[in-house]
Amino acid sequence: MSSLNLTLRVWRQKGANGEGKFVDYQLSDVSTDSSFLEMMDLLNNQLESKGEEPVAFDHDCREGICGACSMFINGQPHGPERGTTACQLHMRSFQDGDTIVIEPWRARPFPVIKDLVVDRSAFDRIIAAGGYVSAKTGSAPDANAIPIPKPDADEAMDAATCIGCGACVAACKNASAMLFVSAKVSQFALLPQGRVERAARVRNMVEKMDAEGFGNCTNTGACEAECPKEISLANIARLNREWLRSNFVLG
Amino acid sequence: MVLDSKAPQGAIEKSWDEHRFNLKLVNPANKRKYTVIVVGTGLAGASAAATLAELGYHVKSFCIQDSPRRAHSIAAQGGVNAAKNYPNDGDSVHRLFYDTVKGGDYRAREANVYRLAQVSNNIIDQCVAQGVPFAREYSGMLANRSFGGAQVSRTFYAKGQTGQQLLLGAYSALMRQVHEGRVELYPRTEMLDVVVEDGKARGIVTRNVVTGKIESHAGHAVCLATGGYSNVFFLSTNAMACNVTAAYRAYKRGAYFANPCYTQIHPTCIPVAGEHQSKLTLMSESLRNDGRVWVPKEIGDQRHPSSIPESERDYYLERRYPSFGNLVPRDVASRAAKAACDEGRGVGASGLAVYLDFADAIKRDSRAAIEARYGNLFHMYAKITGEDPYSTPMRIFPAPHYTMGGLWVDYNLQSTIPGLFVLGEANFSDHGANRLGASALMQGLADGYFVIPYTIGPYLDGLARENDMAINPNGSAFKTSEQEATARINKMLNINGSQTVDDFHKKLGRIMWDNCGMSRNAEGLKKAIDTIPKLREEFWNDVSVTGTPGEFNQVLERAGRVADFLEFGELMCRDALTREESCGGHFREEHQTEENEARRDDENFTHAAAWEYKGDDNEPTRHKEALEFKYVKLTQRSYK
Ligand SMILES: Cc1cc2nc3c(=O)[nH]c(=O)nc-3n(C[C@H](O)[C@H](O)[C@H](O)COP(=O)(O)OP(=O)(O)OC[C@H]3O[C@@H](n4cnc5c(N)ncnc54)[C@H](O)[C@@H]3O)c2cc1C
Ligand code: SF4
Ligand code: FES
Description:
The structure holds two protein chains of two kinds.
Chain A: E1 3-13, E2 20-31, H1 36-49, E3 72-73, E4 76-77, E5 99-103, E6 112-114, E7 117-118, H2 121-128, H3 150-160, H4 167-171, H5 178-189, H6 192-195, H7 198-211, H8 222-226, H9 234-250
Helix pairs in contact in A: 2-7, 3-5, 5-7, 5-9, 7-9
Chain B: H1 12-22, H2 28-31, E1 35-39, H3 43-55, E2 58-62, E3 80-81, H4 93-103, H5 110-129, E4 155-156, H6 162-179, E5 183-186, E6 189-197, E7 200-208, E8 214-218, E9 221-224, H7 245-252, E10 257-258, E11 263-269, E12 292-296, E13 313-314, H8 316-320, H9 330-342, E14 354-357, H10 359-365, H11 367-385, E15 394-403, E16 406-407, E17 420-422, H12 440-455, H13 457-465, H14 476-493, H15 501-516, H16 522-542, H17 554-578, H18 602-605, E18 607-612, E19 621-626
Parallel strand pairs in B: 1-2, 1-9, 2-5, 9-17
Antiparallel strand pairs in B: 3-4, 6-7, 7-8, 10-16, 10-18, 11-15, 12-13, 12-14, 14-15, 18-19
The structure holds flavin-adenine dinucleotide, iron/sulfur cluster (SF4) and FE2/S2 (inorganic) cluster.
């Protein structure tokens, strides 16, 4: 284990309406074994013991699965490592003497709450618009009643691993939520249980996405490149097919 | 107070059906007149809120995270059990029941466990219907894997992300009800108190963590599904926001807390690497299907694992427990790892680790096969340690993971406060003194989808019969709770001390780990009961809580939780001290067999201990619920 001395340039913003600015902090003796968030803990612990306000950031599982952590690190959502959330990024990816710039997601549908914390409830509202199979508790047949080809189940699983972090939106110059929405639409379109409601689902979710102010997809592919779960652009293609199909079905 | 479990008395196979038949139903047209508060959106809370809303109740759903989808359940890895017997390897409801009672070291209530085993199959059906993409065979049928404490393959899984997929299923059902207007969602909202009026739970007091606003919410019943308290140890595998606050506040309002000393130390976690560490990462137990646990035979052998020949390795689980081998239950595996390290045979820089080796499995099944089964776990391990587990054995060590203790509930999941129900990890119900792998997800979903929707009915129906339907968030009990919560917050903010909240949390964690962790003794527990109050006093004099109450203030949030842990830790130690036996995860050094296995004292301790709060300056009272075993014979647990 070795340790690093770092300059952190962190976005500080009091509240939703407050003006934000970058503030520089010097941090020494950061263990290369620590995670990025543990490095932030170290900074915050030092600030708190001086009676200063620590940097607010969202986090919970610290295992790359809850999707809470959401930092723009040196110009990239979740930082430089591919397929990695901020909480799973480790300080061995950085060099002694580095300056690290840390910002919140910047996208109109995700307003800043404080410092690095943003409001991503728009994602919940998109799911509420149709991101489910309407299977009431107790109404299900035996789990093996409908065999599902393994390749379909596996592909659905790949789409379903989306953690709802919003990095795709933050990475996109249009703030498009297509990758997020397409992952859910794909998961269900691939499974027999989901196909019954597929037309209404894609229609309702896409309409909600637009209403929430997310931008259009212009196929830049930045979302896929920055997605910590490596959700594939193929899902967007499937969403587009589902959308076309829904026009035939629903008119 | 006599603890009446309300467990049905007839033949256990029929008791849940009969009980359900006898439960009063609420007329469908009347359901919408009831408001049910559900705190927590993990598997237990989300499934309960969605199902209650489907039935027509008006539901208010609360969670700390910014979205219900981020509840701690999302992190569960390995799988969920059910007695489907799809592999045709001899499983049955009775066997799952038996394994769970035995795995819990005969300290759970038989009727609850039987019901759990029965509804386990409905859970899998329900999840598949929701579009949960469980792993499948090439035939298109569902796949199963094995977990510790069982000799059948009954665990359903979705890669190493089972909790995520089950929770997203429950979350989507919940969001559908939000869309239907039957659930009001309150994310980023922390419950600070349960409000009890005329002896009944009538609502909760919350803090909006964005604005800091203290608010009252009234309801006809309150369901707590607020998870476990492993974070009392500071370092645990739990998510950072996991806490005891909700359960502990309920305890202070009169709900009994059962078996707080029953904590599970999970055998396969990534070892502690240094002071910077904020949490520990679990490596799913499913890895023990293919990984072999070993340490060097020689004490102090510092060689690289690849230079230690087969003949100089001790596969101690296979040696000590030939029939279960690497798949012994967690408590047994954890203690065996500790024993190997205590002997000086631990590996890695700290000597506090053992190897989990996949070389044989890779040779047998190919690297691709292992990657398909555990890819994300291997990836996570490599990220955290910087080592490649495909070529070098993993280093693992036990870590606090799950809490079997929790608020006492009867068969209907009702606590000792009428109208307060407790679900999921927050209650004490089904796992006795040790939980088997893949059974927490099963229990959370059983409670939420298939138990509470029925068992809450009679209480609600009773309110209408007693003409007691009025609920009012401006009542005096609400005002008092709000004032107390506000006063406590202001007190913390005005200390302006020199130590951070984490400093205190770490100190408490150390005390708990050293004295109330993997093994316990009277002397250590007494010492802890003596030191914790001092640490608590130091906290209230010297903690630094920055910022103001009326804003997004994460320090304040953490301070409140740590303050409750500082009281609760003492209760855990008290419980551990009075339980003069070893059982499951509770290992008292004074009570062990010659082979260092846990020695129960069935004559004196075949009961659940439920603690009643008696005021800050008094010792709590210990009540007993006697446990009867009619279907499983009490024996010395053996996995040999
Ligand atoms: C890393 C890991 C892996 C695991 N893997 C498995 C596995 O493979 N199989 C298995 O069966 N079990 C597993 N478990 C255990 C299992 O995940 C948990 O026991 C289970 O998910 C708990 O679910 P729950 O619904 O009771 O609570 P949680 O999922 O913990 O949810 C608690 C909810 O309560 C809310 N809450 C808490 N306090 C408050 C408050 N004061 N105010 C408002 N809201 C509050 C939270 O916001 C959250 O929504 C694992 C656990 C861990 C840590
Ligand atoms: S698609 Fe990827 S980047 Fe977008 S929310 Fe899901 S996991 Fe995050
Ligand atoms: S904290 Fe959960 S994904 Fe990063």
